[in-house]
Write a structure and sequence with these properties.
Helix 2 (30-37) packs across helix 3 (41-48) and helix 2 packs across helix 4. The chain is built from 4 helices and no strands. It has helices at residues 8-25, 30-37, 41-48, 55-64. It has a single domain (1-85), classed as Orthogonal Bundle (434 Repressor (Amino-terminal Domain)), CATH 1.10.260.
Length: 85
Amino acid sequence: MPPPIPSPSAVRRSAGAMLRAAREGQRLTQRALAERMGTTEPQVSNIETGGPATVLSLVRYAAALGLAVELRLVRPRNNKKGSRK
């Protein structure tokens, strides 16, 4: 049985939380990051709170922090190969 698929809003909230943590780790305000991205502070807030955002917006956000977005396919933690439920 395949693992449950998270809702789009759950995926956006998770990504937004990771991006916010990265921004705060660099001690940047939303305004400062928006300036680096060439966008607005409300758009940065929208991304961080899980609002709709394009993949390009996420890539631009990460790049403004000196980071890159990486997509990996991994086996879910609760569905290890060979396990049976």
